[in-house]
Amino acid sequence: MKFGEHYDLVRSLVRPDRLLELRLGDGWGPLCEFLIVERPKVDYPRTNDTATASKRFEAVVQYTMWLVINRLLVLGLTFGGAVYFLSRLWQLLGLRHFGAKMWEANTLNE
């Protein structure tokens, strides 16, 4: 069933005095009249306007960028720290020229 067909079906099933077709921009007026209640003293909520949606989108983008930068820094510092630690360990164990000595040993045997 298509969108318009659904509306037509509801209109055909519900008496006009029992049906309210409210557009979000209409505000409190039609809703309060239909429900026979007093109009609230607060403004009608408008959370889906362009300005609010833009602010939400900007906040999501900023948070996502913060997460990516944070993860990259953590990974970079972890990897960099591991490389530094292993290089210092290599030097402390006296294996600084180990690769060169192995190369010389292999070339002398040939």
Give a verbal description of the structure.
- By secondary structure, this protein is mostly helical.
- The chain folds into 2 domains: 1-46, no CATH class; 48-110.
- Helices cover 66% and strands 0% of the residues.
- It is built from 4 helices and no strands.
- The protein has helices at residues 3-13, 28-35, 50-92, 98-108.
What labels describe this entry?
110 residues; mainly alpha; 2 domains; 4 helices
How many domains would you count in the coordinates?
2
Total E-strand runs? 0
What structural category do the secondary elements indicate? mainly alpha
Radius of gyration: 35 Å
Strand content: under 5%
SSE order and pairing:
Blueprint: H1 3-13, H2 28-35, H3 50-92, H4 98-108
In short:
With 110 residues, the protein is mainly α.
